């Protein structure tokens, strides 16, 4: 089954596990929408439409029908209360148990029980699809005795893991409730859009670990098995509020391809990504938008993925951290497989034996023209200057000439030389007659003096 990321809020339930994708508080998107900073999808009950994702480590009546009783209704005949493995349609069944599933970003969790609330339980989260687990909150009737290494409630920081005694009393015997909010309203959060808060809310799986039953004490005095029939965990309703997790890069979510929207009000798991991001959770930059490193959006910075500048000569690019650091964190995009005889990080230069035509735009597919060097008067196999740089004396298209040869193509002897020849390593011979004429002219000039 495909997993997604959401953001959520929960209430409770042996080890009850829900696979999901994220959890976040009910943050409204900023007034600017997604243009100038982070944005977030609307929240809802993540369990609607996901009953098929819910699993439990121990369930009444799986092997054979079992009788049970309700403490507040002991006058009822036990024979009338049978727990058995009857199949039901999880898509159309309208009982509350159809809501018990998750893969989200979480804000709140509300758990309603038909029996005593647990004497001890743990709400746990996983952000790696169940490979590792971390506690959100411990609950116990007596925290110091049940979870001695966990600090009692008294949050100082939003990331603190504490034990709470408020929801573990034996009363009421039915319709008890456990409420947990990931972001405790008693703790001031300076920036609810910050990266550490987003990481706190992100989950792929949620597990509610019921570790100890509340009893009336008769189980200690009477060892008959039927005494225990009135003690069990029975969850009436589980609500997990949150939304799909998009790293602040989306304000809405759509159905995941191949997964039908089973019920009205279902929170979908595929982010409709903004800021040039893509992926189920907007977790990467779109193709050809790798000039900056991908980053989660923040309240006042969307961290938009920037398009690579390849001047129309490449169809893909990648991000290179070394290049990014070398440019002072300004640009890290590297174009892949430059076309049209171009090369360079941005396909901005011409390949050897080609030069940049000064009459053409850099984006022109014909901008790089082949060097047109005369093989008789040029050297280095006919290579030419790829571009004009007056500081270094380069002229675009200028071939490398033999010593006594000149011209853009190296096809003309310098003044005072003649006989351009392929076999002459200097290209041309000195014109001795012109040299003698010059010497004679100099002698006559000296005689007159």
UniProtKB/TrEMBL annotation:
Sequence segments annotated as region (Disordered): 426-449
Gene Ontology CC terms: laminin complex
Pfam families in the record: EGF_laminin, EGF_LMN_ATRN, Laminin_N
Entry keyword annotation includes Glycoprotein: yes
Keyword hit for Heme: no
Record localization: Secreted, Extracellular space, Extracellular matrix, Basement membrane
Keywords: Basement membrane, Cell adhesion, Coiled coil, Disulfide bond, Extracellular matrix, Glycoprotein, Laminin EGF-like domain, Repeat, Secreted, Signal
InterPro entries cross-referenced by the UniProt entry: Laminin/Netrin_ECM, Laminin_N, LE_dom, LMN_ATRN_NET-like_EGF
Laminin EGF-like domain: residues covered: 244-307, 308-370, 371-430
Cross-referenced PROSITE patterns: EGF_LAM_1, EGF_LAM_2, LAMININ_NTER
Signal sequence, start to end: 1-23
Residue stretches making up the Laminin N-terminal domain: 35-243
Disulfide bonds: 273-282, 338-347, 401-410
GO biological process: one example: basement membrane assembly
PANTHER family: LAMININ SUBUNIT BETA-1 ISOFORM X1, NETRIN/LAMININ-RELATED
Name of the protein in question: Uncharacterized protein
Native source organism of the sequence: Mugilogobius chulae (yellowstripe goby)
């Amino acid at each position: 089954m495909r997993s997604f990321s959401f953001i959520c809020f929960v209430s409770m339930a042996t080890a009850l596990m829900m696979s999901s994708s994220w959890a976040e508080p009910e943050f409204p998107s900023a007034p600017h929408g997604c243009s100038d900073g982070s944005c977030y999808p609307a929240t809802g009950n993540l369990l609607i439409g996901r009953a098929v994702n819910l699993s439990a480590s121990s369930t009444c009546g799986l092997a054979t029908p079992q009788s049970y009783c309700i403490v507040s209704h002991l006058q009822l005949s036990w024979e009338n209360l049978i727990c058995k493995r009857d199949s039901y349609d999880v898509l159309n069944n309208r009982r509350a148990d159809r809501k018990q599933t998750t893969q989200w970003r979480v804000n709140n969790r509300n758990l309603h029980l038909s029996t005593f609330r647990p004497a001890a339980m743990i709400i746990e989260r996983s952000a790696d699809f169940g490979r590792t687990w971390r506690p959100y909150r411990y609950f116990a009737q007596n925290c110091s005795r049940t979870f001695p290494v966990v600090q009692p409630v008294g949050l100082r920081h939003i990331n603190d893991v504490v034990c709470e005694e408020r929801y573990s009393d034996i009363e009421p015997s039915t319709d008890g409730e456990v409420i947990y909010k990931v972001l405790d309203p008693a703790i001031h959060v300076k920036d609810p859009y910050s990266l550490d808060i987003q990481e706190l809310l992100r989950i792929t799986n949620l597990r509610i670990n019921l570790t100890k039953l509340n009893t009336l004490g008769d189980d200690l005095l009477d060892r008959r098995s039927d005494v225990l029939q009135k003690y069990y965990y029975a969850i009436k309703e589980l609500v997990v509020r949150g939304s799909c997790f998009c790293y602040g890069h989306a304000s809405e979510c759509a159905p995941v391809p191949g997964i039908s929207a089973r019920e009205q009000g279902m929170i979908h798991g595929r982010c409709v990504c903004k800021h040039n991001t893509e992926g189920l959770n907007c977790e990467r930059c779109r193709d050809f938008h790798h000039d900056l490193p991908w980053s989660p959006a923040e309240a006042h910075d969307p961290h938009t993925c920037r398009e690579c500048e390849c001047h129309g000569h490449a169809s893909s690019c990648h991000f290179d951290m070394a290049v990014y650091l070398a440019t002072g964190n300004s640009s890290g995009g590297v174009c892949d497989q430059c076309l049209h005889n171009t090369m360079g990080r941005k396909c901005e230069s011409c390949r050897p034996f080609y030069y940049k035509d000064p009459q053409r735009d850099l984006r022109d597919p014909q901008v790089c023209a082949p060097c047109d060097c005369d093989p008789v008067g040029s050297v280095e196999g006919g290579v030419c200057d790829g571009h004009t740089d007056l500081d270094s004396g380069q002229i675009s298209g200028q071939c490398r000439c033999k010593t006594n040869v000149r011209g853009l193509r190296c096809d003309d002897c310098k003044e005072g030389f003649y006989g351009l020849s392929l076999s002459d390593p200097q290209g041309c011979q000195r014109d001795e007659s012109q040299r003698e004429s010059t010497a004679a002219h100099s002698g006559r000039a000296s005689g007159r003096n």
